[in-house]
Specification:
The protein has 319 residues and is α+β, with helices and mostly antiparallel strands. The chain has two domains: 96 residues, no CATH class; 204 residues, no CATH class. The chain is 20% helix and 25% strand. The protein has six helices and twelve strands. A five-stranded antiparallel beta sheet has the order 1-11-3-4-7. Strands 8-9-10-2-12 form a five-stranded antiparallel beta sheet. Helix 3 packs parallel to helix 4. The longest helix has 18 residues. It is elongated and about 80 Å long. The N and C termini lie far apart (64 Å).
Length: 319
Amino acid sequence: MANYGVGNTILATDFNSLVGTNPNTTSGTLNTVWSTGGTTAGYGQTAVPTVSAGNLVYAADWANLINKTANANLHQGTSITGVTAPPAGNTIQYNANIPTNLTSIYTGRLNAASQGSTTANTVTTASTWSNIATFTHTVSFANGDAARYFFNAGGQLKVTCSHPNTAAGINLLLNGLASNVGTLVTSAPSSGTITIISPTTYTGFQKVGGGGSAPSPYLTNTGYYALTTSNATVFSQVAGGGTAYLNTFISLTTKSSGTQGSNGDVGNVITLYTVWDEVPNNLTVGTGSTVTVTAQAPETTYLANTWGTITIAGSVVVA
């Protein structure tokens, strides 16, 4: 990239240093963000091809680079400087905004200005219980890269709970507890925050809405890239209040299937265990305890769907 500057002849190697090979994980190259990338970089889009050394770099090549950078920006909502694609037949001029914009879209790669469709699975207890109800959901992608592209492009998993029975006693307590849990959202990061539909920011794992007492544990740095093959309880909220059952809780435990490919995924199957535990036992809970897991897919206006079909399966065991 050293030759790409004012007054210098722009060579194929200069263009290639901006586009990058594929796969690539280097900051400041388009294909790192746009195509396969690695770990937290990469949307899985068709790579912009490099140009063979010594060959001419045509206006169409530059237009492809500039337009795909713009698409990444529009997907993210990142602030970049507009660059006009050169018309066919024009001499290519140095533009300092091109490498700066590429660095900006790398920095903002996990942000998303909008999201797309949803896939959901709802499981409801069909029998009464008086001890514990364990809901198990598995969210499956075709392969590890498909899972990466989903989360890298702003996809999220969301868990909500409900218990519509409001009969006085344990049912009313669980009705309030389920509402207080709010929406439990898993995003990409293992640290820091991302912006999904500005100005809303998310940690890797985040409770949205709800109420009640402060959850404990509440592990915010447990997004997709923090998952392992071991169960990790990332959230637990107790009922609280003045009843004898104030220690009754709802918790969430997560794990993944482990690395599947060679580009830095952590698994293509994510398992979510939502546990409702009556403490102490023996009061009868009515039917209707419900957990819904929703996969909120990335948008498909500026990106093609590279994450594929998302399958969610769910079940519940009561005691």
